[in-house]
Amino acid sequence: MAEGSTIRDSVCLDCTPDPGTRGLGEADVIAWSYGGGTQSAAIAVMILTGELPCPDIAVMADTSRECSETRQYLKLIVQPTLDTIGLTVQIVSHEYAYWDIVKEKNNSVLIPAFTRQSGNIGKLPTFCSNEWKRRPIQRWLKEQGVNNCDVWLGISTDEAERMKISDLKWYRHIYPLIEMVPTSRHQCRAKVLQYGWPEPPKSRCWMCPNMSPQSWKQLKSKWNSDFIQAVLLEYEIQKTDPTIYLHPLAIPLRDAVEQSEQQSDMFDGCDSGYCWT
């Protein structure tokens, strides 16, 4: 952003909505947290078709480990179309995160990895979405001079139980797919396809332990370079804690992918709502 400019100078210049249609709240800035999955693609389509007002800014946190498929969909499909209305998805660098995989303060692993430390398979708490996405976006917005904003999060009606009230007065959560234009995940997918865009990817990091065994297989098959990075990262994490694994079988990732069978009932991917982006 150029020196002396405001956040409105660098974002949606051609699609400023009528004040009466801006959505909920009395915010100075409407910020859309783009997560990269089906719901995010649907929100983009709804902005383009006028079902939703155009936000002042769109922003995506770069975890530095987003799957190649997700990045390509934004680069090749979503962003070129948003360019036609002057809306750019601003990418917040991973440098805005204070911690990476291991939080040195207490030597804890931030991702919800699997562990055999107790002898049985357990799962670590999820801190990465907060440390890598929510807080970096907040820091970036503050840096741009934003002190009063409503933030759109892509949670659809079938995920309403995941709605959370923000603990910050200046940064309020808004759920446009629930509170403004009620839309289910199935309807989100249909809107994207009807608009003429290809099937949107699942938003996920290539090392996310929340992937199902089937998703790990697909990652290895379709995006092998991402899978290799995950294997190497697991080795690195195990230097801190040798009992930690990325796969739900809690065995080395290479071995697990070869052994696992399809388990379609497991959580499969991190669409925007899961990581609160």
Describe it:
With about 280 residues, the chain is an alpha/beta fold. The protein has a domain at about 5-110 and about 125-200: HUPs (Rossmann fold, 3-Layer(aba) Sandwich). Helix content is about 35%, strand content about 10%. It contains 8 helices and 10 strands. It has helices spanning about 40-50, 70-80, 130-145, 175-180, 185-195, 215-220, 225-240, 255-260; strands at about 30-35, 55-60, 90, 100-105, 110, 115, 120-125, 150, 170-175, 245. A 5-stranded parallel beta sheet has the order 3-2-1-8-9. It has a 3-stranded antiparallel beta sheet with strand order 7-6-10. Helix 1 crosses helix 5 (about 185-195) and helix 6 (about 215-220) crosses helix 7 (about 225-240). The two termini are about 20 Å apart. About 40% of the residues are buried. Residues about 1-20 have low confidence and may be disordered.
